[in-house]
Amino acid sequence: MRAARIRAAATVNGEFGGLGRRRLDAGEFIGRLRNVLPGGSWWRLEDEDAGGAGRADASGATAASALSRMWALVANDRWVIFAGFASLICAALAEIAIPHLLAASIFSAQNGGAVFYRNAKLLVVLCMISGVFSGVRSCCFGIANMILVKRMREMLFDSILSQDIAFFDEETVGDLTSRLGSDCQQVSRVIGNDLNLISRNLLQGIGALIYLLILSWPLGLCTMLTCGTLSTIMLVHGRYQKKASKFAQEFTASANNVAQEAISLVRTVRVYGTEKQEFKRYAKWLDKLYDVSFRQTMAYGGWSLSLNYLYHSTQLCVGCCCFDWRNSNHEWEVHC
Length: 336
Description:
Blueprint: H1 2-36, H2 63-74, H3 78-107, H4 113-161, H5 165-170, H6 173-215, H7 217-264, H8 266-272, H9 275-320, E1 322-325, E2 332-335
Helix pairs in contact: 3-4, 3-6, 4-6, 6-7, 7-9
């Protein structure tokens, strides 16, 4: 009997012990899940040991001041910017009108006649206008981008050469060359890519929203709700990407500094046999850069998920509208 009680107690203790371990594992899983979810500790960049990258936490210039400084650099060639924006407006207006004429051409295709051919001709003309002005827009913004990079690097290099000798004792060569190289190239994307896309999408979005409100106000309100939600998510995502980009720039500069020191003093490194130590120093900064880049990629994935989800949700709302074909006058009637 005593042996049976001992075996029973061992069995009960084993079961409850396993249950406790399962509860502990479930608690750890929930805790890790909370850290990975948006707003968790895994997304925080302040805890990174940036070393020389502590300056990444400093508040940078505002968007208005940055744009004003960029405009000062390209002000002598302002005609390129004006031509780019004029082409952007023409291309956006043409792309807004294309869906309307495309739908009108499809609806009048069965009847044929002068109405169909007129809509088809206008559709071809608008497609040509959109293609031509889109090419001119990309060309103008690309030229402005090259001008900005050139003058920014000239100004930065001139400013570096005019500094006191004490400045070069505090700053490393790898950090300065990284500012001249990758940082200037990354800033130049504001005109060549960001400003171009933001202006085009904003103009097309406003035009399409006005058209939707005129066509069907419930559909327009649904689209406004989706756009408002996407704007909020975009602001949060943009702020996180801005902070992560600062850390990535600092880590890249630190890695370049280590590589330049090791290569320039390669004879000394070989004499003392510190190749592995230098490799570990370089790999440490690359690991930090990988961590930040991985978080940036995950944040972009979340933004893409939200965009596609809300976009298809809007399509679902449009699909819920009942389209009734009138046999008498062959028009579309929308009942929501």
